[in-house]
Amino acid sequence: MALIVQKYGGSSVATPERIKAVAKMILDTEKAGNQVVAVVSARGDTTDELIALAKQITDKPPVREMDMLLSTGEQESVALLAMAIIGLGREAVSLTASQLGIVTDEAHTKARIKEIHPERIRDELRKGKIVIAAGFLGVDKDLNITTLGRGGSNLTAVALAHVLKADVCEMLTDVDGIYTADPRIVPDARRIDEISYDEMLELASLGATVLQSRSVEFAKKYGVKIKVRSSFKESKGTIVMEETSSMEDIVVRGAALTKQEAKLTILGVPDKPGIAARIFERIAEKNVNVDMIVQNIGHGGKAEISFTVLRSELPDALEVLNKLKTELGAEAVEADPTMAKVSIVGVGMRNHTGVGAKMFRALANEGINIEMISTSEIKLSCVVADADGERALRAVHKAFNLGNG
């Protein structure tokens, strides 16, 4: 008998009708000869609604109380789903984080799992019950409720699949797998049958929201096989797994577009050791996450340093640079909040030449100017104007023949 962990996202349990449909899916999985642990997110837009509600009370909700509030969304979902299964004649039990044995650190709203004690889960399975687990939640050593960050139910599912030694961790959502690009932007994007952990990690970091990047990191570390498929229709889905030699035959696995980027440049800084360290140490003190960095050497012992940040973090980064301009004797600070990043990802890029040239030509043919370039072993990214972002994504997707047909 196989053990399957299934995770159902918020859209899958958004309405009473959807909850009943999920209950039937779980029973169908069990009837096929499997034990089932179902991890469930809050219904629909419940989490966003709770955040908005808190903001109506105070501009700065205490993080501990936010976790207490947000946990109610998952508790509602698991109880309702357990009721639906019991209503269909099967035994089920809903369990929250403390009952699941999920222990985290004390970092409210972005906690990390430290350990899991799954004895209660195993006991309920031995009794023949279907376990309905609250995703997204944990408890710290003092039994305070914590949350695992956006997409945290994915992490809950993968972590439980690991400790329970499940045969597979299925992520059931409103899409039928991982696509070569966002099909809302690229109509001919196609579903990918298999993708490596590393490729999925890159795509997740570039805005592919189907899987939380931390859940993929965890799956890679412990070898948990993930299957992404639809909870709304039958589909083969996408398997996220260890890299195989055949994966290298495909040069580019997928393309992604990240919007909400901003570019900053500090011009005329002294070209000497320690300047870059000083700049980025001060940026880090503001908890601003820096993406691409480019330094150009100018004339007369001067240089310019450009980097990108999320648009939402531009004010903090700009504040730092404006202070450093005076301290360093820099000539000017420039900021452009209208940037986007288009990227291609594929393990086959390690062993194939000309990938960059092909991407740059595709953008040039569309008249799209490249502001910055960043590479890694399996990723190539270009910063372009936000207005050109979607056109850039379609151009590179077509250049590497990623679409259907």
What does this structure look like?
- With 405 residues, the chain is of the alpha/beta class.
- It has two domains: 2-174, 3-Layer(aba) Sandwich (Carbamate kinase), CATH 3.40.1160.10; 255-399, VC0802-like (2-Layer Sandwich).
- Helices cover 36% and strands 28% of the residues.
- The protein is built from twelve helices and 18 strands.
- It has helices spanning 16-31, 46-57, 63-87, 97-100, 119-126, 152-163, 197-205, 213-222, 275-285, 314-328, 355-365, 389-399, and strands spanning 2-8, 34-40, 92-95, 102-104, 113-116, 130-134, 137-139, 145-147, 168-173, 194-196, 226-230, 238-241, 254-270, 290-297, 302-310, 332-345, 372-376, 379-385.
- Strands 3-6-2-1-9-11-12-10 form an eight-stranded mixed beta sheet, sandwiched between helices. Strands 14-15-13-16-18-17 form a six-stranded antiparallel beta sheet.
- Strand 11 and strand 12 (238-241) form a beta hairpin.
- Helix 1 crosses helix 3, helix 2 (46-57) runs antiparallel to helix 3 (63-87) and helix 7 packs antiparallel against helix 8 (213-222).
- The longest helix is centred in the first third of the chain and has 25 residues, at 63-87.
- It is globular, with a radius of gyration of 23 Å.
- The two termini are 39 Å apart.
- The model has no long low-confidence stretch (mean pLDDT 93).
